[in-house]
Design goal:
The structure is a single chain. This protein is of the alpha/beta class. The protein has two domains: 166 residues, 3-Layer(aba) Sandwich (D-Maltodextrin-Binding Protein, domain 2), CATH 3.40.190.10; 92 residues, 3-Layer(aba) Sandwich (D-Maltodextrin-Binding Protein, domain 2), CATH 3.40.190.10. The chain is 38% helix and 26% strand. The protein has ten helices and 13 strands. The strands form two sheets. Strands 1, 5, 6, 7, 8, 9, 10, 11, 12 and 13 form a ten-stranded mixed beta sheet that branches. A three-stranded antiparallel beta sheet has the order 2-3-4, with helices on one face. Helix 1 runs antiparallel to helix 10. The two termini are 36 Å apart.
Length: 265
C-alpha cells in the first residue's frame, strides 16, 4: 500500500471518528457563522498550504477544503468557495460581504483587517536560489545588489520589508510571477513559504532551497472584523480539529512538506 493511499485511508477513519464524537453546532452558531444560509469560504487560488486547483478539473482540494467540509457538516449548511487570484485582492475584500471565513497566513498587518481566530498549521518561510547562485546561505541574502522576489502583500513581503537592510525586494502579483522573475534573472532569490519553494525547485533544474528558515508562518481561519460571534465559533472548531487529529491527517493526505500542526492555545 503506497503512502498516498495509506494517508487517505487514515484520513477517512479520522473523519468518521470525528463525525461520531463531535456534537454539531447550535442554531445560534449556525446563524453567526453562515447568516446567508451558506458558508462562504475565501481561499487563494495558488496556495497549496490551504488548497490547490486541479488543472484538469478546476476543482479545489487540500487542507482548507477538508476543514471547510467538516465545518459545513457540523453547521449543517452548504458551502461555497470564493477563490481569489492574489493575496492583495483577498485582503481588500475583507471590508465587504463576500465571504464568511477565510483560510490564510496570519500576520500583524492582516490582523488589522481580518479577525483571526486561531492557527491550525505552521509553515516555514525560506529562500529559493537559481542554478549557479552565489548565495550559499540565508546569511548571504541581505547584501547590497541582491534582489529578492516576493508576492506583493504576501507573508514574505510583509516580513522582509521590515527586516532586510541591504537587499532589494522585487514584487509580483503571484508566485508564478515571482518564479518568472527568478528564471529571467530579474531576481537573485525568491522568498516564500517552503510549500511553494520545493515544487518550484523541482521544476527549475539546478535551483535549490537554502537550508534554515527565515521564520514560521501560522496558517489559520479568519472572519470579517465585525463578526465576533463567528470568531468564537471558529476558534472552538480549530481547537477541536487539532485535538482530535483531523488536521494532522488532512496535512498527511495533502502531502505537504515542511508544515506541522500548530500548537493548541
Amino acid at each position: 500500500m503506497n503512502r498516498v493511499r495509506s494517508a487517505w485511508l487514515l484520513f477517512t477513519v479520522c473523519t468518521l471518528v470525528a463525525a461520531c464524537s463531535t456534537v454539531g453546532l447550535t442554531p445560534e452558531d449556525r446563524q453567526a457563522l453562515a447568516p446567508t444560509g451558506k458558508l462562504r469560504v475565501a481561499l487563494l487560488s495558488d496556495n497549496p498550504v490551504a488548497a490547490a486547483r486541479d488543472p484538469r478539473t478546476g476543482e479545489m482540494s487540500g487542507v482548507a477544503v477538508d476543514l471547510t467540509r467538516e465545518l459545513a457538516n457540523r453547521t449543517r449548511v452548504p458551502y461555497e468557495l470564493v477563490v481569489y487570484p492574489t493575496v492583495a485582492q483577498l485582503i481588500d475584500s475583507a471590508a465587504g460581504d463576500a465571504w464568511d471565513i477565510v483560510f490564510i497566513g496570519i500576520n500583524p498587518d492582516r490582523a488589522k483587517r481580518i479577525r483571526f481566530t486561531g492557527a491550525y498549521a505552521e509553515v516555514e518561510l525560506g529562500y529559493l536560489v537559481p542554478p549557479g547562485s552565489r548565495i550559499a546561505s540565508i546569511n548571504d541574502v541581505d547584501r547590497s545588489g541582491i534582489r529578492v522576489a516576493v508576492q506583493a502583500k504576501g507573508g514574505a513581503d510583509v516580513r522582509l520589508s521590515k527586516e532586510l537592510n541591504s537587499a532589494q525586494l522585487v514584487r509580483a502579483e503571484t508566485i508564478a510571477g515571482c518564479i518568472e522573475l527568478l528564471k529571467s534573472g530579474k531576481a537573485d532569490a525568491l522568498a516564500a513559504v517552503k510549500t511553494f519553494l520545493y515544487p518550484a525547485s523541482d521544476n527549475l533544474p539546478g535551483s535549490h532551497v537554502l537550508d534554515g528558515r527565515v521564520s514560521v508562518t501560522p496558517i489559520g481561519i479568519g472572519v470579517p472584523p465585525h463578526r465576533e460571534a463567528a470568531a468564537a465559533v471558529t476558534k472552538r472548531f480549530i481547537e477541536d480539529v487539532k485535538a482530535n487529529g483531523f488536521v494532522q491527517q488532512a496535512l498527511a493526505k495533502a502531502g505537504l512538506r515542511g508544515v506541522v500542526v500548530a500548537k493548541s492555545e
